[in-house]
Amino acid sequence: MELRNLKTFLYVAEQCSFSKAAILLNYSQSTVTAQIQKLEEELDILLFERINKTVRLTNAGQEFLKYAHEIIRTSEDAKKTLKNLPIETGELRIAMAESIANTFFPEILERFHQLYPKIKITLYTAGTDSLFYKLRHNEADLVYTLDKRIYSSEIVTVMEKKEEVFFVASSKHRLAGKNCLIEDLLGEDFLLTEKDMSYRSHLEEYLASKSLEINPFLELGNVEILKSLVEKNAGISFLPEFTIKKQLEEQRLMKINIPEVFKVWRQLIYHKHKWVTASMKVMIDLIRDYEYDKKIFS
């Protein structure tokens, strides 16, 4: 039962005329007739008597009139309630790459919580395949990837940024700031992220294409711990620039320069069929603001 048909019924009942109702609703008379006929078919009753160009409610029509008014009134009340629903309530589920969660995202979460303390946030970290599983099965509202640039008809991309990935070492390391071939690094002590991390996978694929291999003495999912160990000159690592920007600026870590350039993309996405809630929009805006104008967070 469509609301527009109920609305047409009320107009016809009030005007006792199909033609007058059509004028007020800006419909053709045939449209009004079709809508009333559809309603009568759904209810399996005759709502109007049509005799010699007169229109009069039947007894069943009179009875149905109060229900139609109630349904329309309830619909309008629901619209007003939902429109005025406070943004400060609800839940937001975000899935992202671990490197993003451990670096700048805590600052965004802190700002979001300051603005909307009553919104519950659930944060998942995983590899790209798992992130997309959550996206496709509606287990996450927003997904923040760190991988090759993703194109898909299933997703809406609201922010993306290219990131370079470097070999890095402590400023005390003998190769810090030096120009090397990637082959020269293979014998060094390596501390790497786990194999399901996107940039680690890209490195492995490239090395395999050259019949080369790195055997790290430590594999770890936590980028913050890796950075700390590399700073202590425990070995070399391979990390995205955004995760080590502060350490590079303070020269606690330094790049090892090689001819090859490795790049990944950070992309903030959601499923094309996802309803964008108010809390989703706020989070999207905060992430964009952080990316393009970090001063507002200082």
UniProtKB/TrEMBL annotation:
Signal peptide segment: none
Domain of life the protein comes from: Bacteria
UniProt keyword annotations, A-Z: DNA-binding, Transcription, Transcription regulation
Residue span(s) of domain HTH lysR-type: 1-58
InterPro entries: LysR_HTH_N (IPR000847), LysR_subst-bd (IPR005119), WH-like_DNA-bd_sf (IPR036388), WH_DNA-bd_sf (IPR036390)
GO terms of molecular function: DNA-binding transcription factor activity; transcription cis-regulatory region binding
Keyword Transport: no
Family, per entry: Belongs to the LysR transcriptional regulatory family.
Protein name (database record): HTH-type transcriptional regulator gltR
Organism name: Megamonas hypermegale
